[in-house]
Amino acid sequence: MKDLVRMRTSLKEEIERILNEQIKMEAHSSAIYLAMAAWCDRNGFDYSAGYFYKQSEEERKHMLKIFNYVSDMGGHAISPEITNVPQDFDGFRDIFELALQQEIAVTNSINRIVGTARQLNDFATDQFMQWFVNEQIEEEYVARRAVELFDVIGEEGVGRYMIDKAIPKISYDGGAEAE
Ligand code: FEO
C-alpha cells in the first residue's frame, strides 16, 4: 500500500519530510508574529502591532505556498500542530531582535532544503524554493533594518515613539542603491 501511495508522487520521502517541516516552521513564525503583534498592541506600539499582524499574514501565505506545492505534487501535506508560542516578551527592542533571529533561522532552513533537493536531483523542488530564497533576502533585510533603527534613532525621550512610527515604512528596494 505504501508503495502504491508513493507512486502518486515524484516527491522523495526525504523531500516531503523537510517540506512538511518547513510548513510547520512558517506556521510557527506566523503564530510568533501574531503574539508579537498582541504584545505591541498591549504596550502602546500601534504601528509595530500593524507591522507584525502583516508579517503574521505573510508567514501564513508562505506556509500555504509550500502546503499547496506538496499537495499538487501528489504528496501528503501535513496541517501542522503549533506549540511553544511565546506570549510575552522582554521589551520593545527584544521583539525585533527575536524576529531577526527567526528570519535567519528560516533562511538557513530554506538553504538546507535547496541543498538537499540538489543532492537528490529534485529540480522541481529546487526551482520552487528559489522564490523563498529571494523572499528571505527581503525578509532578513527588513528585520535587520528594524533592529538598526533602535541604534540609529535611540530609545531615549520620544525615541521609541519615533521607532514605532518608522517600522512600517521600512522597505526593501532590491539593492537599487547600488545601481
Ligand atoms: Fe516565511 Fe519570514 O519567513
TrEMBL record:
GO terms for cellular component: cytoplasm. Iron-storage protein. May alleviate iron toxicity in the presence of oxygen. Its EC number is 1.16.3.2. The keyword DNA-binding does not apply. It is found in: Cytoplasm. InterPro entries: Ferritin (IPR001519), Ferritin-like (IPR012347), Ferritin-like_diiron (IPR009040), Ferritin-like_SF (IPR009078), Ferritin_DPS_dom (IPR008331), Ferritin_prok (IPR041719). Fe cation binds at residues 26, 59, 62, 103, 136. This is Ferritin. Its main location: cytoplasm. It catalyses: 4 Fe(2+) + O2 + 6 H2O = 4 iron(III) oxide-hydroxide + 12 H(+). One of its GO terms (biological process) is iron ion transport. It comes from Larkinella arboricola. It is an enzyme of class 1 (oxidoreductase).
